[in-house]
Amino acid sequence: MYGVAMSQGPLHSTAAERDARRYIDRIVRGSRSSFYWAMRTLPEPRRGAMFALYAFCRIVDDIADGDGASAHKIAQLEDWRDRVDQLFRGAPNHPVTLGLSLAVDAYALDKADFVALIDAMELDAAPRVRLEDDRALDLYCDRVAGTVGRLSNAIFGVPNDTARRLAGTLGTALQITNILRDLKEDAKRNRLYLPLETLRTYMPKGAGDAHAFDDPLSVLADPSVTAMLDGLALRAQALFVQSDDLLARLPRNQALAPRMMKAFYQRVLTRMVRRGWRRWDTPPRLGTMEKTWIVMQGLS
């Protein structure tokens, strides 16, 4: 996908490690993600570990969001399951898993979190995505964001109990913000992450219609969905507040990167709430100066 040949065997040489770092850096720098700014504040080797983790997440997410048949995308994700297996056998065979190999040992990264993230990407790769209820939404958020939160917190050095709780609060808040921000883009891909059980409450006309939610764009056009979106935003805001308490217990060096991630996404959520839910075509983004200001505030 990124123009680097895939090896069929383990990669171990110093030259391969240098190539892997350059490969990972290209992915991270090309992403233009807010996470890049937070990751840059980390010292080495934690920064390199986070860059490798981000590159892994970026690749599997790009597969799920890519063009082509669902079966082809799922086959590509199965290839990444195999690469994760090889990584945890001590035989990484891809530049990104080579970059992750030292982090797996140094920070006791859990294979189950990588596997669960791929599970979430396989859901995204399906030709039609619907979540039946809040439990399905919570499971999706845990697989797509809680997993990354737990892996990231391990790299940051956050103690296990706090790491799990922080992944559950901050990770879910970040993912709900993503869902709200990308509603129309996802709808165009026939994805609807708003729980159907709750939608039936807010949209009574859909309660007895088996096809009421077949067209996600029509769902978003219904004015009654606004109250549900307000409720999801309130939940995310409450989770951001809960994460503040957990972050306050951590040493500054462990809390700095997650605080910045929180600041970026909380600002996006606040902006969406203030302007309302009708401007689907222009999801709010933070500009470079705004991101720089947040970073400087975090470092001060």
TrEMBL record:
Domain of life according to the entry: Bacteria
UniProt xrefs under InterPro entries: Isoprenoid_synthase_dom_sf, SQ_synth_HpnD-like, Squ/phyt_synthse, Squalene/phytoene_synthase_CS, Trans_IPPS_bact-type, Trans_IPPS_HH
Annotated GO MF terms: geranylgeranyl diphosphate synthase activity; squalene synthase [NAD(P)H] activity
Biological process (GO), any one: carotenoid biosynthetic process
Ranges that cross the membrane: none
PROSITE patterns: SQUALEN_PHYTOEN_SYN_1, SQUALEN_PHYTOEN_SYN_2
Cited Gene3D superfamilies: Farnesyl Diphosphate Synthase
Descriptive protein name: Farnesyl-diphosphate farnesyltransferase
Keyword Zinc-finger carried by entry: no
Pfam family, any one: SQS_PSY
UniProt keyword annotations, A-Z: Transferase
